[in-house]
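Human: For the file, kindly provide a plain-text protein record giving the amino acid sequence and the backbone structure tokens, at your earliest convenience.
Assistant:
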Amino acid sequence: MGWFSRRSSRKTVKFPGRSDGPAMEIDRKEVETHLQTFVATKRGVEAYVEPATSVTNTTIVLIAWDGEWTRRAVPSPKEAFEVSRKLGIPVYDVNQTGYPNRMREWSKRKRQGDA
């Protein structure tokens, strides 16, 4: 039996409710709760909206004054801006502003074990 004949007999496994990628299911309540908690426990939080790609959904990144950050998928850019306004924090389009240096510095410290 050859490689291709064996391979063609296998069945494709489908995963309902994907956990990543553009077809992933988003639990809006969980996302909002996470973002609310981040804002409530950090100072100087700003939101940055990242566009969808062929691999990921639209995402919102919250960045605190010290550079600590968190990212969550959201259904659309419009919803990301609405959630940010509801949280009462400044919101930016990352394509327009880029990321603040404090985010990269915090990530670097975290990788080095200092954060």
